[in-house]
Design goal:
single chain; 626 residues; mainly beta; 1 helix; 46 strands; globular
């Protein structure tokens, strides 16, 4: 969206407004820095990547992530001019063509005025284009004219425009006209109407705004409240932001906020191997407690938990709490066996880094001869729409003019003598005969290989290229290699797509074992039905799913809380789950677990079906209002 307005005319600032603004400035001057970000980057990334770069973020609440929408990235030294006063090697935050990002924290907890300082730059050919400041409910990264937020637009020609919960209040006060490609200092102070208290507690909400240190105007906004303290920045065309600093006063107890969910989310490790799970949270004070499926783990009371992997399939989660509340991490799943070789990010659930335009590379894997690759959760091309492990898989493409294989690899450690290795990988095939755009190419057989070396240039020990005969399905493929008494170097796994004229290969659930295969996972015959339910207290809800008899499976229904904690439902071991007289506490998700009857390490799950239970509406004149 581009909003073009004519050059705005100057407006007189009254002495009383200037006095109130001075009061707000004095009040905020003694506040502490809550958050700062200079966007230091090693390459162009999304704002949520590299948030732990040394020296990038600061303040009481660091580290914080971003709610991102549209075209946003950090880095950009080749796109935007470098700010002469920038200490982060010129790195900055770029938003383009309605791109938006909100700091993922509700600053409405502050007890006084909230000051936001930032550098801004307009990088387009139009002087009516702008940089912006928004405050409100940041869910979904709303644009500047969304009803969830209020916004101030600072135009390159010096004009301003004000949006009050989506309503265009028209022209604000004109200030300094920076022009194009000129880094300019902006300040916004949020306060109550008096200019001395919080903007979020019911005494009115206003924003005093400054350009290059000079007071420009006051924006009287609709009342802000709890949940409306998210701070965001957007672009009409192309805009830059840098050196954002947010200052204010926090209460003595700050409710916990989960910055980074549990990592890694899924692990496949050798029994006895050390493994560390961790979360990142802010708030004050913070109390951590780790749990496994048996309950709280004694002594596990920090933001990380290190242990030696126990054989079997185990789950872990963490709570972070204080007197103001509690937050729950998701549940991490750890699969361990004595003959498993640790493969990091084996099911592509543990994150990825941007690459190849809109693609991505799974963390702890390295790309080679890259054309396009991405971690994906889209399962609509499979029937049933199931992914072999977890919710994500890896897709790698090549084009008709591309030369050589493309893919990823991972070094899994020293090659062992007198050992038989089994590499098993699920390979997928979509249900259509052309991959967008324009139906180019086709779904491709996938390459799986074991190499002697540390990267994709090592000697090939064994390789296979294959995919399912039936479209819309996944199938396991295995290659085997036995070493002799004398070996040297490392063992590397490679996943790839052949060169032109093939197009895309799909991979998931990478398992490397020694001395034998892992038992087969149960096969889902019917995914969960209904896929979602919304009902009222007292109703009956019935879910069903089915596994095939090859291999035979024991069944167990599971409940997943809205916080992501998974637990077995006692006594529910049939293909159908009936919930009678549901209550608000039944809100969450439900899934059916299939467990191989001969080896409990082999499990598979139906999709998770969300259930929302709402109160029964009270009757009005004997009519129930819904």
């Amino acid at each position: 969206m581009t909003m073009n307005k004519p050059q705005l005319l100057p407006c007189k600032i009254t002495a009383s407004l200037a006095c109130l603004a001075l009061l707000a400035f004095i009040s905020s001057a003694s506040a502490a820095v809550l958050f700062s970000d200079n966007y230091t980057a090693t390459s162009n990334q999304t704002p949520n990547d590299q948030i732990n770069n040394a020296g990038r973020q600061g303040g009481t609440l660091a580290t914080l992530g971003y709610i991102q929408g549209g075209n946003v990235q950090i880095g950009n030294t080749s796109t935007l001019p470098i700010d002469p006063g920038d200490a982060s090697a010129g790195d900055s935050f770029l938003a383009a063509f309605s791109g938006t990002a909100y700091i993922n924290y509700d600053f409405s907890i502050v007890t006084g005025p909230l000051e936001i300082d930032f550098k801004g730059l307009v990088h387009t050919s139009g002087l009516t284009d702008w940089v912006s400041f928004s405050v409100g409910n940041g869910a979904g990264a709303p644009f500047v004219n969304n009803s969830a937020v209020s916004s101030i637009l600072f135009r390159a020609n010096g004009g301003t425009e004000l949006f009050n919960n989506g309503t265009d209040n028209g022209a604000g006060v004109s200030g300094f006209a920076p022009g194009l490609d000129a880094w300019t200092s902006y300040k916004v102070i949020l306060s109550d109407t008096a200019g001395t208290g919080s903007a979020f507690v019911g005494n009115g909400s206003r924003a005093d705004y400054y350009v290059n240190g000079s007071f420009v105007g006051t924006f009287n906004m609709n009342q802000l409240g709890a949940g409306q303290g998210f701070i965001g920045f957007s672009a009409g065309q192309i805009s830059g932001y840098d050196n954002i600093t947010i200052s204010g006063t926090l209460p003595a107890v700050i409710a916990p906020h989960l910055v980074t969910d549990i990592e890694p989310l899924r692990s496949e490790v050798t029994t006895g191997a050390p493994l560390t799970l961790s979360v990142t949270a802010n708030g004050s004070p913070l109390n951590y407690q780790w749990y496994d499926q048996s309950g709280p783990i004694i002594g596990a009371t920090s933001n990380s938990y290190t242990f030696n992997a126990v054989a079997g399939l185990n789950s872990y989660y963490c709570t972070v709490s204080n007197a103001a509340g509690v937050v729950y991490s998701s549940s991490a799943v750890v699969l361990s066996a004595t003959n498993l070789v640790t493969v990091n990010n084996f099911s592509f659930e543990n994150g990825s880094t941007p690459a190849f335009g809109n693609g991505s590379i799974p963390v702890q894997w390295t790309s080679y001869n890259g054309d396009w690759a991405s971690v994906s959760s889209g399962a609509s091309q499979f029937s049933p729409p199931i992914i072999p492990d977890g919710t994500q898989y890896f897709a790698v493409n090549t084009g008709p003019t591309h030369s050589g294989d493309s893919g990823v690899y991972q070094d899994v450690g020293p090659l062992q003598p007198n050992t038989t290795y089994y590499l098993t990988v699920a390979i997928g095939r979509g249900d259509n005969q052309g991959v967008p755009p324009n139906g180019l190419g086709d779904w491709s057989p996938g390459i799986i290989a074991l190499l002697n070396g540390t990267d994709n240039t090592g000697s090939v020990l064994v390789t296979a290229t294959n995919y399912p005969d039936a479209a819309g399905t996944w199938q396991d493929y295995t290659v085997t290699y036995t070493t002799g008494p004398t070996v040297s170097g490392d063992l590397t796994i490679e996943l790839g797509v052949p060169p032109a004229s093939t197009y895309q290969s799909l991979f998931d659930n990478v398992r490397l074992t020694t001395g034998g295969l892992l038992p087969a996972n149960p096969a889902l015959a019917q995914d969960i039905l209904p896929a979602s339910v919304e009902t009222v207290v007292g109703d009956q809800v019935v879910f069903s799913a089915a596994f095939s008899n090859s291999p035979a499976a024991n069944l167990q229904w599971q409940f997943i809380t809205t916080n992501g904690v998974v637990s077995d439902i006692a006594g529910q071991t049939a293909a159908t789950l009936t919930l009678n007289n549901v209550q608000l506490t039944n809100t969450g998700s439900y899934r059916l677990e299939g467990i191989n009857q001969t080896n409990s390490l082999a499990v598979f799950f139906s999709s998770a079906a969300p259930l929302v239970v709402r109160p029964v509406s009270a009757p009005v004149n004997n009519v129930v209002i819904t």
